[in-house]
Write a structure and sequence with these properties.
Blueprint: E1 10-14, H1 19-31, E2 34-39, E3 47-48, E4 51-54, H2 57-64, E5 68-71, H3 75-87, E6 92-95, H4 102-115, E7 118-120, E8 126-129, E9 133-136, E10 145-152, H5 155-167, E11 172-177, H6 188-197, E12 203-209, H7 214-222, E13 229-234, H8 258-267, E14 271-273, H9 279-286
Parallel strand pairs: 1-2, 1-5, 2-4, 5-6, 6-7, 10-11, 10-12, 12-13, 13-14
Antiparallel strand pairs: 3-4, 8-9, 8-11
Pfam family, one: Ligase_CoA
Active site: 246
GO biological process, one term: tricarboxylic acid cycle
């Protein structure tokens, strides 16, 4: 099994005729994702990698039954693109775009709640269920089907950890990039709940970082999980008050420190790796 997406997911690419949209459409198709349509206003009738392009998401839903969308639209226009997808009935929207204005992100999340839809991102690498489907920008070759779920704030770190798990013989059920911005659609707890309920996920890897309290909040949920959790946290040596890559990765007023997160996770029973390549061995120990 998998969470969020599988081989039946039908994807529309918003911004498909742009450089990033067209390139990653090809990558997703090569992986086996069912990319059924693209949207680029004013360019209806064109094709990208054999995928028909429409002016509206509504047309993509009506003509091809699209159920999920991926957004490759510049930040100033991202809100309108996401709201269009939600209003067309799309239930899963993956927002790759970074630097989405904070008030726009808040409006997006409020509309998604009203529509009963799920937002992944903004500023995410996406989501992949290995061997089934991927909606995102992650490299195709590092994943393999299996029973370890990954939820991450950081893209690059999650790639490294997924590759090391694959090398160690541990495939992945689904890998979810929450997004690195301050306001994102899914929390660690949201995804942990999905993995807890997924019968074929046997262990979960949580890839966190400094800033905010998401990992401490996740620790409270982990206390009641039946499945083992292994964590890795980035930003151990980051100075307070300095943003480290992601908008959400900043320690403020003593909150969100590396040590506070490690202590909370370990107290909840999670195994915390000091280095990324140690995660696979901790997963091995957890599954013995």
């Amino acid at each position: 099994m998998a969470i969020l997406i599988d081989e039946r997911t039908r994807v529309v690419v918003q911004g498909i005729t742009g450089h990033q949209g067209s390139f990653h459409t090809g990558q997703m198709i090569d992986y086996g994702t069912r990319v059924v349509a693209g949207v680029s206003p004013g360019k209806e009738g064109q094709e990208v990698r054999g995928v028909p392009v429409y002016d509206t998401v509504e047309a993509a839903v009506e003509k091809h039954g699209a159920t999920a969308s991926i957004i490759f639209v510049p930040a100033p226009f991202t809100k309108d693109a996401v709201l269009e997808a939600l209003d067309a009935g799309i239930k899963l929207v993956v927002v790759i775009t970074e630097h989405v204005p904070l008030h726009d992100a808040m409006e997006i999340m409020a509309r998604a709640r009203l529509k009963g839809a799920t937002i992944i991102g903004p500023n995410t690498f996406g989501v992949i269920s290995p061997g089934k489907s991927k909606i995102g920008i992650m490299p195709n070759q590092i994943y393999t089907p299996g029973r370890v779920g990954i939820v991450a704030r950081s893209g690059t770190l999650s790639y490294e950890i997924a590759a090391s798990l694959t090398h160690a013989g541990f495939g992945q059920s689904t890998v979810v990039g929450m997004g690195g911005d301050r306001v994102v659609g899914l929390s660690f707890i949201d995804v942990l709940k999905m993995f807890e309920q997924d019968k074929e996920t046997e262990a979960v890897v949580l890839v966190g970082e400094i800033g905010g309290t998401a990992e401490e909040e996740a620790a409270e949920y982990i206390k009641g999980m039946s499945k083992p959790v292994v964590a890795y946290l980035a930003g151990k040596h980051a100075p307070p008050g300095k943003r480290m890559g992601h908008a959400g990765a900043i320690i403020e007023r003593g909150r969100g420190t590396y040590q506070s997160k490690v202590e909370a996770l370990e107290a909840a029973g999670a195994r915390v790796a000091a280095l990324p390549w140690q995660v696979a061995e901790l997963v091995r120990e957890a599954l013995r």
